[in-house]
Structure formats: C-alpha cells, structure tokens
Amino acid sequence: MDSLHLKIITPQKIALELDVLSVTAPTASGEITVLPKHMNLFSLLKEGIIKIKPILSKSAEVKENYLAIGGGYLETDGEALNILVSRAYGQDEIDAVKTEKAVEEARKIISQSKDESQRKEALSMLRRSVIDLKLLKRRKTRSA
User: Fold this and answer.
1) What is the pTM assigned to this prediction?
2) For the chain, which residues make up each domain, given as ranges?
3) Could you say which of 56, 68, 84, 106 is the most buried, measured as most Cβ atoms within 10 Å of its Cβ?
4) 76-127, pLDDT tens digit by residue?
5) For residues 140 and 11, what is the distance between their CA atoms, to the nearest angstrom?
6) Closest CA to 6 of 41, 63, 54
C-alpha cells in the first residue's frame, strides 16, 4: 500500500509525524488533497482545518484526524509531505469554553474599539477561534 510520510512542524515542536494515505489542506488557492506519488508541490497554506487519513491497523478505530492550523507552507515530493505552520492543534487540545470566551471578547473589541491595531488583533483572534470551534464541531458530529 502506498503512503506518504507526513511531518507537521510548528515553531515550537514537531506536532505530528506518521505515515498517511492522504492529507487535505486549505491552500491560498483552494483546498487540495495530497496523495502518495503526488507531483512535486510547494504551496502557501492559510489558516484552517486539515484532514488526515492515517494508515489503519486492524484494531484502529480512527478513520480521519483533524488539526486546526495557522498559516504556513506545504511541500511534497510524493513520498514525504512536510507542513510548516505557525500553529497546529488537535481536537483534544482545544478548550471549548475558552474558545467561546475568545470569540465574545474579539467581537466586543471589534464593535467598540476605534484603535485599528486592536481591531486587527481582535479579527485575527476571532478567525483562529472560529476555526477551533469548527474543529470541535467536527469531532462532536463524528463521535455521535
């Protein structure tokens, strides 16, 4: 069975390293899926959610994994897939209560602040928080 060796790297750590069947990621020009033997590719990634299909063992129950990522780059030669991003969080690393509070706070700052730099920072926080909430909803619908 063909596979890709996936490595997701953030400035803090190697967030994930494993062999996979495919990875779907949000690029600057749209969502793409990288499969084994993919042509050489270097692409700009935008904030969003990536879907990872790992190679399943007979006892494995997880058919897909999801990660919320920050912007970065994707590079593959068809055998290895390297994803370099500003952040990468799994579903279990996100606190729903804190994320909801961050959304509320960002919306409040956006609506009330006249300082442009504060508004830009709040918009960025809102974007990240909305992505994290989408990731949490995927987990809930999958486990139901």
Assistant:
1) 0.80
2) 4-91, 94-143
3) 68
4) 999 999 999 999 988 788 888 888 888 888 888 888 888 888 888 888 888 8
5) 29
6) 54
